[in-house]
Write a structure and sequence with these properties.
Helix content is 43%, strand content 17%. By secondary structure, the protein is an alpha/beta fold. Strands 3-2-1-4-5-6-7 form a 7-stranded parallel β-sheet, with helices on both faces. Helix 1 links the parallel strand 1 and strand 2.
Length: 246
């Protein structure tokens, strides 16, 4: 492995969408981190990169298929050699696609697992290899209530999210003694997005009563996890609006 050309700190957000992932990237950029953000299409990252840059931060967008091992290895190598050490890694790919188990296809079930679980393994493994050599770093996984219990009609999503939670548990136990903080964030509830606004207007109407999650407030918790002292590391953080049922 080659050495990065500078000592700037990098946050890598895999799955930097318009809501949670983008907010996390902005939050770390405010703290002086270079935000490296990925989606399958680099064009969709341009507004996020431009927003961070306009606010005085530094950001770089990368097109990457998070399910492709060669693409992931090349991405981590490029970031580490051209920009700096990845100090914080956030895996934020969802794939929440409901379907009755009676109608679910093998192809879609496998694709959801690939997106929401397998890609988390690939990216986290490559980042962990770098962090271990430096004996520091933070790895954060975005989870969901589906990772704790499976709901009717969400067998594929629940299977993937259970898997990513188990991956996080195993990594935390293995890498914690090497000074790598691994944490899993359960996000339970609707998030303030265009999708929720357009498809669930009654739910979105509760925004003024703090009935849906604000992406910026979610992002604050990711920064909190990264900046925790290691004598009191959190493994699992559960985020939900005050009126969300448990």
């Amino acid at each position: 492995m080659t050495t990065a050309i500078n000592n700037k700190k990098i946050v890598l957000v895999v799955g930097a969408g318009d809501a949670t992932g983008g907010a996390i990237a902005k939050r770390f950029a405010r703290e002086g981190y270079i935000a490296c953000v990925t989606r399958r299409s680099a064009d969709k990252l341009q507004p996020l990169v431009a927003s961070i840059t306009a606010s005085g931060g530094e950001a770089h967008g990368f097109a990457c298929d998070a399910r492709n091992e060669e693409d992931v290895i090349a991405l981590i190598e490029q970031i580490e050699t051209e920009l700096g050490p990845i100090e914080a890694f956030v895996f934020n790919i969802g794939a929440n696609v409901p379907c009755s188990i009676l109608e679910e296809t093998a192809r879609k079930y496998f694709k959801i697992w690939e997106m929401a679980c397998f890609s988390g393994f690939l990216n986290a493994r490559e980042v962990a290899k770098r962090m271990v050599t430096r004996q520091r770093g933070t790895i954060l996984f975005t989870g969901a209530t589906a990772g704790l219990r499976g709901a009717a009609g969400f067998a594929a999503f629940a299977g993937a999210k259970h898997g990513i939670r188990a991956l996080a548990q195993s990594m935390a136990r293995e890498l914690g003694p090497m000074n790598i903080h691994v944490a899993h964030v359960v996000v339970d509830g609707a998030i303030d997005t265009d999708f929720i606004r357009d498809n669930f207007p009654e739910k979105y109407a509760t925004k003024d009563q703090d009935g849906i999650l604000n992406p910026e407030h979610i992002a604050d918790n990711y920064w909190y996890l990264h900046s925790q002292p290691r004598d009191a590391w959190t493994f699992e953080l559960d985020l939900r609006p005050w009126n969300e049922r448990w």
